[in-house]
Amino acid sequence: MPALSYPGVYVQEVAGGVRPLDTASTSTAAFVGLSEMGPDTGAGLVTNWTDFQRVYGSFIADGHLAHGVFQYFANGGRQCYIVRVTRRDATVADVTVHNRAVSPVAGMKFSAKSKGEWGNTLLLQIEDATLDPGNLFKLTVRRQTDPTAVPDSPQDLPPLEVFDNLSVDPDSPAHVVDVVGRASGLIDVQVLPGNNATQHGVHRGGLGPTLPLDTHLGFRISLDGDGYQQVTLATGASTATALSDVASAIETAVHALTKRKASTDPAAFSAFTCTAETVGSQSRLVLRSGTQSAGSSVRVQPAATHDATALLRIGEAAGGRSEDGIAPRRPAAVSLLQVGDSGIAAPVTAATAGSDGVAELTESSFGDAFSRLDHVSDFSLLAVPGESTPAMADLGMAYCANRPLQDVFYLAETGRGDDSVADAIAFRSRLTTSNSYGALYFPWVKSPDPSGRSAEPILLPPSGCVAGLYARIDASRGVWKAPAGTEAGLNGVVGLGAELSDVDHGNLNPRGIDVIRRFPGVGVVAFGARTVSADPQWRYVPVRRTAIMLRVSIYNGIQWAVFEPNDEPLWAQLRLSIGSFMTTLFRQGAFQGSTPSEAFFVKCDAETTTQADVDAGVVNVLVGFAPLKPAEFVVVKISQQAGLASG
After folding, report:
1. Which residue segment(s) compose the domain that 284 sits in?
2. Which residues of 412-430 are buried (b: 16+ CB within 10 A; e: fewer)?
């Protein structure tokens, strides 16, 4: 409050009594499985199918992760996390090329961004850079459209990534390792330790200088970064017609200069050379610094008056080209370089073929990958598309139940070959986990092949479709609405691995097997909403998922209460904040009951938090809700009324 020193109106902003709680997201999924490419050390977020393809590739023969993600987005999913599993013997494709030194050595290794055979389809092109072609280089990345055929020319394929003006200088902001490592989704670059060649900094002029110079006897030069100084040739050079005589005059004039910086090696000037070099039928000037080191350089600029650079063809503007002492470390220029599957011939010094590996994968291979999701808190659905075994379902549901906040629901599916009621029942009987943090779906679904390889519909696991359906229903109706019924159509599904009758359904439903069925005029729909739990309180998917949503929302929304004074004012604030949140959900139709008092309660007082709790620093909030349960069995009673006597 400001000091009240004058008569008038004082306005002060104060916090309201209610701290609003946000409803936790319930529709973000996480998928675990094999993919063509992509990182295998964490969980990556993708927001559409194109995003998935860019990072994780497309469809592969030995995994259904891509199919599941494709179905997820096709059925209403908005974003999901991807956990890529790789075999332990999978390898990264790479290729090593030599540098541009006089005696070249292995200078730079280019590697695929992630493990897998996909890296063998990468093609590189290494050229001189646009801005400083003598010192910098350009790297273009392409990918073979046909893995069995290398194109004759890189121009036959569109570039996927282009990195221009790259440097091998580790202190440069354009250092190739930093730029490519930060921006590329396809390759990594490593400058090898033995790549330490240096040369005398050199500036080669353009071909065909014009002599005599007459009065044009000046230019500016900088050696080893010492700074530009004026060079004025002796008057005898004005009439010289031999380029070697001009070269001698330049050398003499530069020797007469003195360094400006204490750190500059004086040999840069005292040992400076300028020679005339013949290339074919023409000549050019070659200016060399007197030092041989990474920092050695020669730069030329026009003079303000009586400039000679245009006639001598020196300086970048006149066609000259500078190469610094570090320039030999650049990778050799090559028009078409295959990563991984390259033959060993200059400029290639080594190559390692990328491989998906052949090691056996087990349920534990996928279950162990769940740990990469331990620190991800904004997803609520988990699936391992195509890994459809009882052991995998047990691992998935156990992981969801054992997360600290128990905030994830697992989508299990029966096996690919399970195409009868007996098969589904046998699958269910082999589950050892029977908690409410998962649902089991049967059967697999038939969809047009998204890869285009098959003209006929192919059999796919249903978990991707179902995860997208959950997201769609959550967005349109709320998490408390069962993701089943005639509005729960599965987009992109044209058939089923098993067609079920009402009797078949009646044998599966009590066992907690959620069926996918086809109905005339409706199509293929999810027509079950039970968890695999035997506990009647948690029998239904929307009940468990509503509880998850409430738990996460309240947990995130009352973090402000930590370290607040543990007394009635805090308890009242908690009751008010949580009560307001629950009332909002009640008005949206999330609970049973015609009034808020019938639908939920929030209790936080001296009864829930005793003095012993206060002494221990604990405040207890009790929240109860009356969940909505789906009307599984709609019974219609029809009676016949006897005819009434007419009046």
Report:
1. 200-325
2. bbbbeebbebebbbebbee
Residues 436, 442, 447, 450, Cα dihedral to 10°:
40
Residue 79 forms part of a structural domain: yes
The C-alpha torsion from 226 through 229 and 234 to 238, rounded to 10°, is 120
**Two structure tokens written together for 115:** 């493990």
Q: Torsion-angle region of residue 183: left (phi > 0), alpha (psi -120 to 50) or beta?
A: alpha
**CA nearest 72: which of 26, 43, 29, 25?**
29
Instruction: Tell me the two tokens of residue 18.
Output: 């209610």
37 pLDDT more than 90 = yes
Model confidence at 631, pLDDT cuts 50, 70, 90, reads confident
- Residue 219 domain flag: yes
Q: Are 433 and 507 part of one and the same domain?
A: yes
Is residue 478 within 8 Å of residue 469, measured between CB atoms? no
Measured CA to CA, the distance from residue 308 to residue 322 in angstroms comes to: 17
Please list the alpha-helical segments (H only) found in 414-501. 421-429, 463-476
Contact 441, 516 (CB under 8 A): yes
Q: What is the pTM of this model?
A: 0.89
Rounded to 5 degrees, what are φ and ψ at 44? -105, 140
CATH of the domain at 340: 2.60.40.4290
Q: What is the pLDDT of residue 645?
A: 58
Question: Is it the case that residue 155 has pLDDT exceeding 80?
Answer: no
Distance (Å, whole) CA 640 – CA 185: 71
- Do the domain assignments include residue 429? yes
The count of C-alpha atoms lying within 13 angstroms of the C-alpha of 191, restricted to the half-sphere facing its C-beta, is: 21
Q: Where are the alpha helices (DSSP H) in 168-293?
A: 176-183, 243-255, 267-270
Q: How many domains does the chain have?
A: 4
H or E stretch at 75: none
Beta strand 137-143 pairing with 409-413? unpaired
Pair (534, 389) in one structural domain: yes
> Quick check: 643 pLDDT over 70?
no
